[in-house]
């Protein structure tokens, strides 16, 4: 089973999409309290409600979870290293924002072994509810489409 770590996990839409597609979500990081609470209500794996910029705190929590070696999370390459330490095949990361009346989400899928971005997608919705519902499912679909064509599945 392929494993992923969901960074900036929100309420878990991408995690759910990957889980439904047969991936194991190892852990998730979400700073916003309301989203983390929602995430915890729907998933059993660890959810860390920390700012990823708080490097020492994040590293300590991950180390406690998996007794990992020391590293610093500062960029995409380090996020890949986190995926390696957790035994994940892929790392999903991205952002959610609002410009005017539009809510936008973008996500990238990185192959932990190669360090290459193997998928990227974005979507825009007028209502945040639609973004969290069908928008996240759409992102997961497009990201998974890229991995399935690579794996021949």
Condensed summary:
It is built from five helices and six strands. It has 153 residues and is an alpha/beta fold.
Notable traits:
globular, alpha/beta, about 150 residues, about 25% strand, Rossmann fold, 5 helices
Give the CATH topology. Rossmann fold
The largest beta-sheet arranges its strands as: 3-2-1-4-5-6
Average pLDDT metric: 80
- Give the overall form: globular
pLDDT < 50 stretches: 67-74
List the helices and strands in order. EHEHEHHEEEH
Largest sheet: 6 strands, mixed
The number of E-state strands comes to 6
Helix count equals 5
Radius of gyration computed on alpha carbons: 15 Å
Between the first and last Cα atoms, what is the distance in angstroms?
13 Å
CATH architecture: 3-Layer(aba) Sandwich
Structure, explained:
This protein has 153 residues and is α/β, with parallel strands linked by helices. The chain has one domain: Rossmann fold (3-Layer(aba) Sandwich), CATH 3.40.50. The protein is built from five helices and six strands. It has a six-stranded mixed beta sheet with strand order 3-2-1-4-5-6. Strand 5 and strand 6 form a beta hairpin. It is globular and about 40 Å long. About 5% of the residues have low confidence.
């Amino acid at each position: 089973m392929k494993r992923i770590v969901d960074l900036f996990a929100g309420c878990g839409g991408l995690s759910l999409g990957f889980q439904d597609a047969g991936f194991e979500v190892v852990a998730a990081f979400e700073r916003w309290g309301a989203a983390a609470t929602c995430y915890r209500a729907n998933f059993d794996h660890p959810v860390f409600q920390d700012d990823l910029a708080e490097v020492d705190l994040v590293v300590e929590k991950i180390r406690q979870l998996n007794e990992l070696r020391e590293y610093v999370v500062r960029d995409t390459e380090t996020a890949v290293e986190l995926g390696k330490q957790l035994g994940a095949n892929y790392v999903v990361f991205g952002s959610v924002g609002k410009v005017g009346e539009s809510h936008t989400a973008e996500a990238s899928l990185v192959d932990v072994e190669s360090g290459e971005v193997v998928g990227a997608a974005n979507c825009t919705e007028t209502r945040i509810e639609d973004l969290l519902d069908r928008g996240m499912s759409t992102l997961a679909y497009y990201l998974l489409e890229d991995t399935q064509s690579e794996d021949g599945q």
